[in-house]
Amino acid sequence: MVPIVLRVYNTLTRTLEGFEPFEPGKVSMYVCGPTVYDFSHVGHARTYVAFDVVKRYLRLKGHDVVHVQNITDIDDKIINRARDEGRDWREIVDEYTSDYLDALNKLRVFVDMHPRVTEHISDIIEFVQKLIASGHAYVAPSGSVYFDVDTYDDYGRLSGRLDKKMWTQEEFATEKKNPYDFALWKARKPGEPYWDSPWGPGRPGWHIECSVMSSRYLGQRFEIHGGGSDLIFPHHENERAQSESLFGVRPWVKYWMHTGMLQVGGEKMSKSLKNIVPLRDLFREYDPLVVRLWLASAHYRTILQFSDEVLRQAQSNLQRLKSSVALLKKLSREVEIPGRVSDYEIEVLKEMSTLRRDFYENMDDDFNASGAFASVMKLSGLVFSKISSKPSYLLVYRALSLFEEFNRVLGVLDEDLGLGAVEMLPFDEVVDLIVEVRAKLREEKNYELADYIRNRLSSLGIQLMDYGDKTKWLLASK
Ligand SMILES: Nc1ncnc2c1ncn2[C@@H]1O[C@H](COP(=O)(O)OP(=O)(O)OP(=O)(O)O)[C@@H](O)[C@H]1O
Ligand SMILES: [Zn+2]
């Protein structure tokens, strides 16, 4: 039996909590995407694949999940890059946005919505206006607008920074009420892109975009807010302050989930630290699905070290999974539909059930993909040992269907593992034929054999109902 209870580690409460959406079966997930001023790198992939696994698992468990992942297409870093390279900032944005979308595609991370900041300027202005009107923000003489952190009484709890001394952030200390206030709107500086606003020309600060775009697409409260753990402070702390202040809801986000950083040489891989391995370079050396498998088989909260060795291991794991499936497909063409289930088959079926249960138990334990992946590799082991040594229809198709189920989370194998072939058999006609033969046996008063057929079909989930000399059949729900 698949356990129902999923537990999720919530950064806000620092505990594992039972997963309960606000509305049963519906999950909204917002993940902070990239600032597009450089190539997407392996660190990004770590976070994107991790949340893709979360989404796929929730879907496997029957939730209707909407996944929004924003694109920050205006920011100091983009402007600086454009200035350094003597290019238009929009050119920089276009180049790296398509690099990002291409990487997602290759990694089989399918996001439902990719909202961009520059397409939401009027929504941002409206949000900031409301924050000012409700006393949570103020306009400085420069025309910049700041969030007044003192008006929000829960600041620092998400990041565990409960002392004000730990809050200092961002520039413009001179015109802010407090050093820990942060910019919602930045007044235009000469030569910078700008939009008109009630406070003069300028552009949005970083944090406001996620409060605005998440509420636009997911509503004023939602289930999962994700990103790398590097974003907990100040980005998520600020988002939370803005949204809870304006919407008056608490909690604004039910589960805050943060991925562990991908490191290289003991340091976070990041554009600012200039130690990135761009995905487009890595994909020349490794199949993107090898990269995906490595990341999808790690627990999302662990710190990962980038190395050739881990990728080579993932490469060999992927090869093994593919070979197992290829072997099963070959066997599926050779095995015959059995008359009777053997004790051996029952034993191996039980082993497969245990692997399936372990997979779900691990995933239910805060999406422990690493534990769950052990089941996938063990299934592979069964294929090369007990299944291939005594191949049977039952075991081959059960193993294929299990791979298909696991792959709905892993996403590294073909989506169609050949199970369609089973449905291609003229199933109804075959059952009709058996029922016809049974009718003849009954005519000949061979009730013993007729009852045997009825019982055997029943154990396969096919119920026969006799009405005089006519028989109907239906598939019993399991
Ligand atoms: N090394 C990393 N490991 C895991 N996640 C990361 C890593 N670097 C960035 N992320 C995540 O990827 C998403 C996009 O991040 P962002 O564009 O800010 O990248 P960055 O390389 O950290 O850039 P910068 O150095 O300018 O901050 C965020 O959710 C962020 O938390
Ligand atoms: Zn964000």
Structural account:
There is one protein chain. With 478 residues, the chain is an alpha/beta fold. The chain folds into three domains: 7-304, 3-Layer(aba) Sandwich (Rossmann fold), CATH 3.40.50.620; 307-410, Anticodon-binding domain of a subclass of class I aminoacyl-tRNA synthetases (Four Helix Bundle (Hemerythrin (Met), subunit A)); 427-475, no CATH class. It contains 15 helices and 15 strands. The strands form five sheets. It has a four-stranded parallel sheet with strand order 4-3-9-10, with helices on both faces. Strands 5-6-7-8 form a four-stranded antiparallel sheet, with helices on one face. α1 packs across α12 (393-410), α4 (121-133) packs across α5 and α5 crosses α6 (232-247). The longest helix is centred in the C-terminal third of the chain and has 27 residues, at 308-334. The chain is elongated and about 100 Å long. The mean pLDDT is 94. Bound molecules: adenosine-5'-triphosphate and zinc ion.
Describe the secondary structure blueprint for this structure:
Elements (H helix, E strand, L loop, with lengths): L6 E4 L4 E4 L7 E6 L10 H19 L3 E6 L6 H10 L3 H18 L14 H13 L3 E3 L5 E3 L34 E6 L14 E3 L3 H11 L3 E7 L3 H16 L5 E7 L2 E3 L2 E2 L10 H7 L2 H9 L7 E2 L2 H27 L8 H22 L4 H21 L3 H18 L9 H5 L2 H17 L3 H13 L2 E6 L2 E6 L3
Parallel strand pairs: 3-4, 3-9, 9-10, 11-13
Antiparallel strand pairs: 1-2, 5-6, 6-7, 7-8, 11-12, 14-15
The chain binds adenosine-5'-triphosphate and zinc ion.
Adenosine-5'-triphosphate binds next to helix 1 and strand 9.
